[in-house]
Automatic annotation (TrEMBL):
GO terms for cellular component: plasma membrane. It comes from Streptomyces griseus subsp. griseus (strain JCM 4626 / CBS 651.72 / NBRC 13350 / KCC S-0626 / ISP 5235). It is an enzyme of class 2 (transferase). The chain crosses the membrane at residues 32-55, 62-81, 121-143, 155-174, 180-200. The keyword tRNA-binding does not apply. Pfam families: CDP-OH_P_transf. One of its GO terms (molecular function) is CDP-diacylglycerol-glycerol-3-phosphate 3-phosphatidyltransferase activity. The keyword Glycoprotein does not apply. This is CDP-diacylglycerol--glycerol-3-phosphate 3-phosphatidyltransferase. Coiled coil: none annotated. It is a multi-pass membrane protein. Probably catalyzes the synthesis of phosphatidylglycerophosphate by transferring a phosphatidyl group from CDP-diacylglycerol to glycerol 3-phosphate. It catalyses: a CDP-1,2-diacyl-sn-glycerol + sn-glycerol 3-phosphate = a 1,2-diacyl-sn-glycero-3-phospho-(1'-sn-glycero-3'-phosphate) + CMP + H(+). Belongs to the CDP-alcohol phosphatidyltransferase class-I family.
């Protein structure tokens, strides 16, 4: 006995306990405020800034549109790095999984809609691109229970084409450059439609595979249950037939999936 309270002696008093809780909270907060998430947040903040710059002074001032282009370019560049950094340095968080695709759609959607409002970009182009992006997002949720649709090279090329074309439309261009940006946008639209159809095909195949795997697993569990409860050789017959049926079902579903891919 020293006569000194435990809290004053650095023992197990209330202050160290509170400090421990604060330390845990600080660690959790630090895991959220990583470089990948910060880049995503910057991209989200650039969306309203880009719109304000684009529409400043009526939306037709070349200088302000150049500033808007700079904001758009920074947003698109951060899109190239945040996901890579998150995966490379194990910085993936729930916030990033949700915020990153939202930021991607927000900056591109803001650019397309704003340009159409200003009369620089036909509304049908904006409609096609936004419908595709929304449709693929919903499609991912449709199959997420069974599998994740991976990003393809075509999808990445589509994003590059969209960003380049939209950026060229943000700038005040004339002559050959104005003609060039139209054709770049047409390439972006074609890639948007083609990759969208490919994602639909992948989603259908993955969903079929997932459903087939679930049915096969259920059939095998039933067969194993029958086998386990079979007490005599006579009772083992239905179990063996169930196992064979499950294997045949798996083989048939594998053939169907292969044909669907072709």
């Amino acid at each position: 006995m020293t006569g000194v309270p435990a809290s004053a002696a650095g023992g197990s008093g209330a202050k160290p306990v509170r400090g421990g809780k604060l330390g845990t909270a600080a660690v959790n907060q630090a895991s959220l405020w990583n470089i990948a998430n910060i880049l995503t947040m910057v991209r989200l903040l650039l969306v309203p800034g880009f719109v304000l710059l684009l529409f400043h002074d009526g939306g037709y001032d070349p200088v302000w549109r150049a500033f808007a282009w700079a904001a758009f370019a920074v947003a698109m560049i951060t899109d190239l790095f945040d996901g890579h950094l998150a995966r490379a340095y194990n910085l993936v968080t729930d916030f990033g999984k949700i915020a990153d695709p939202i930021a991607d759609k927000a900056i591109m959607g803001a650019a397309l809609v704003s340009l159409s409002v200003l009369g620089d970009l036909p509304w049908w182009i904006t409609g096609v691109i936004l419908a595709r992006e929304l449709g693929i997002t919903l499609m991912r949720f449709w199959v997420i229970r069974h599998a994740v649709i991976p990003a393809s090279r075509g999808g990445k090329l589509k994003t590059l084409a969209q960003g380049t074309a939209a950026g060229m439309y943000v700038l005040v261009l004339t002559g050959p450059l104005a003609t060039l940006r139209f054709w770049v946008m047409m390439v972006a639209v074609v890639l948007t439609v083609v990759t969208g159809l490919d994602y639909v095909r992948q989603a259908v195949v993955l969903r079929r595979r997932g459903i087939a795997a679930e049915r096969t697993a259920a059939a095998e569990r039933t067969a194993e249950a029958l086998r386990g409860t079979a007490g005599t050789a006579a009772d083992a017959g239905p179990a063996a037939e169930a196992v064979a049926g499950a294997k045949d079902l798996r083989a048939a579903e594998a053939r169907d999936a292969a044909e669907a891919e072709r």
